[in-house]
Amino acid sequence: MDGEPRVHFTCDEDWTNGVIERLKGFKSLELIFKPKLFLNAQFKQCHDIDRLKITLSQPGHYRLSWLLDRNANNSEASEPFFSKFLPEHLATTKCIESTSLSLTDLGDVTAILEKFLQDPYVYIDLMLGHCSLKGIPDIIFKQGNLRRLSIVGAPDLESISEDLGRLTLLHQLFISDTGLKHLPESLGNLKNLHRLEVGKNQLVNLPDSLAKLEQLKELDIH
């Protein structure tokens, strides 16, 4: 994309004809959205744009970046991209290129995760913050490339399935401000784990298998 017109744009207001006029002629466009703002039909006027990166970051919303390509089976690019809950076509389109997913203040995220995590080899970084979790959704344990898992602010989470041991490529595990009382013995299967932070929980003991984590360099249990 070097040498081609591009623009970085923060959307603080609804789209207007004036804004769209200013975007004409650009081929690469990066948008940082505020809540409830989305592209409307006027985007169809920007015929030159063929690559579009969208980032949304706000409590109560998804924080995720997408890279969309008009030439890569993305016929719906001119439709509104999202409101508070992301339309299904963005959760499944092949145009998404993202390795990091962060969900905050979204209540029960099980259904959301099932949409985003359909391909178990896409995400390497997953963060769940202040969501209503009584257990870790099973689909998380199927993410074969996950390197970093962070769960923060889940007071109803008291236990974690032994399936945690399936995340053998995990390098960093952060769990804090939960009701967690025990860690599973399968923790010892995480042979690549370098950093483990499980402070600010309700832990009464640690599993004996912790001694098997030969790659562990940082441990925080306070």
How would you describe this structure to a colleague?
The chain has a ten-stranded mixed β-sheet, with no helix packed on it. Helices cover 9% and strands 27% of the residues. The chain is mostly beta strands. Helix 1 links the parallel strand 1 and strand 2. It folds into two domains: 87 residues, no CATH class; 124 residues, Ribonuclease Inhibitor (Leucine-rich repeat, LRR (right-handed beta-alpha superhelix), Alpha-Beta Horseshoe), CATH 3.80.10.10.
Structural class: mainly beta
Number of strands: 10
In sequence order, what are the helices and strands, one letter per element?
EHEEEHEHEEEEE
Shape: globular
What summary fits the major beta sheet?
Answer: 10 strands, mixed
Mean pLDDT: 71
- Count of helical stretches: 3
Low-confidence stretches: 1-17, 33-47, 56-97
From the 3D structure, determine the CATH topology of the largest domain: Leucine-rich repeat, LRR (right-handed beta-alpha superhelix)
CATH architecture of the largest domain: Alpha-Beta Horseshoe
Q: Kindly, what is the distance between the CA atoms of the first and last residues, rounded to a whole number of angstroms? A: 47 Å
Strand order of the largest sheet: 1-2-3-4-5-6-7-8-9-10
Percent of residues in beta strands:
25-35%
Counting structural domains, the number is 2
Helical content stands at: under 10%
Report Rg.
20 Å
* The CATH C-level class name of the largest domain: Alpha Beta
Q: Could you give me the name of the CATH homologous superfamily of the largest domain?
A: Ribonuclease Inhibitor
